[in-house]
Amino acid sequence: MSEFCPEVWPEDPVPSCQTDCQECGLYRQGSRMIWGEGNPKAPIMIILDNPGAREDRKGNPMVCGTRQTLQQAMHEAGLTKKQLYVTYILKRQPVRAYDKEKTRAICMQHLLEQLAEQNPKLIVCLGNVAVQAFFRNSELDVKGLRGKSHLVGEHTVTAAYHPLAARRRPNLYPLLREDMQFVAARIREIN
Ligand code: SF4
């Protein structure tokens, strides 16, 4: 692995009209709303299931394990920070049990607004939760979709392993890197 140091990416602020969103009830669990991070004008939009921690217990900015592994794989695939924007199916991190299907369906409205506004050239869903929510099909998985482009509405979408899965099962890391290499090649073609 090449020498690489993960870093805190700039957070994309929540639009003022959305900061008090209480639509699905998840706000009661107390986690703050995170709209996204990285370059909002990037050609590639990465979609995770939900945000991880961005601050440690003392409130200092930190890069969680998921983002460390994601940034590492992107770096090894030759992708740059400027090319990437990361967002989530759920804009808040759940901390207790919740109605997954209903909550995802409600919060997805925010993602649809982001897509309409940002219009990325390529979308990458990381992990089965993001895949199933975004494709609206609970039978799909990363394994079946990775390494290819798919059309969802007018959007070009691919899938990749979740960085946390690759962290927990190191044999998956080379596959995540391969997924990011596919993303890098695809965006070069699109451009
Ligand atoms: S999870 Fe999404 S829909 Fe639910 S309260 Fe938070 S921002 Fe609103």
Which structural traits does this protein have?
Uracil-DNA glycosylase, 4Fe-4S, alpha/beta, binds iron/sulfur cluster, 191 residues, 36% helix, 7-stranded mixed sheet, globular, 15% strand, Uracil-DNA Glycosylase, subunit E, single chain, metal ion binding
> What characteristic shape results from the CA principal axes?
globular
The end-to-end span amounts to 28 Å
* CATH topology name: Uracil-DNA Glycosylase, subunit E
Per CATH, the class reads Alpha Beta
Percent helix: 25-40%
**Domains, number:** 1
Structural class, from helix and strand content? alpha/beta
Identify the strand order in the major beta sheet.
Answer: 1-2-4-3-5-7-6
Report the radius of gyration as a whole number of Å.
16 Å
Unreliable stretches = none
Mean pLDDT: 96
Descriptive notes:
- This protein has a 7-stranded mixed sheet.
- A hairpin with a 2-residue loop joins strand 6 and strand 7.
- With about 190 residues, the chain is an alpha/beta fold.
- About 35% of the residues are buried.
- The protein has 6 helices and 7 strands; from the N terminus they run E-E-E-H-E-H-E-H-H-E-E-H-H.
- It has helices spanning about 65-75, 100-120, 125-135, 140-145, 165-170, 175-190; strands spanning about 10, 35-40, 45-50, 85-90, 120-125, 150, 155-160.
- The mean pLDDT is about 95.
- The protein has a single domain (about 10-190), classed as Uracil-DNA glycosylase-like domain (Uracil-DNA Glycosylase, subunit E, 3-Layer(aba) Sandwich).
Secondary structure elements and their pairing?
Layout lengths: L10 E2 L23 E3 L5 E5 L16 H12 L7 E5 L11 H19 L3 E5 H9 L6 H4 L4 E3 L2 E6 L2 H6 L4 H18 L1
Parallel strand pairs: 3-4, 3-5, 5-7
Antiparallel strand pairs: 1-2, 2-4, 6-7
Helix pairs in contact: 1-6
The structure holds iron/sulfur cluster.
The site of iron/sulfur cluster has 13 residues, from helix 2.
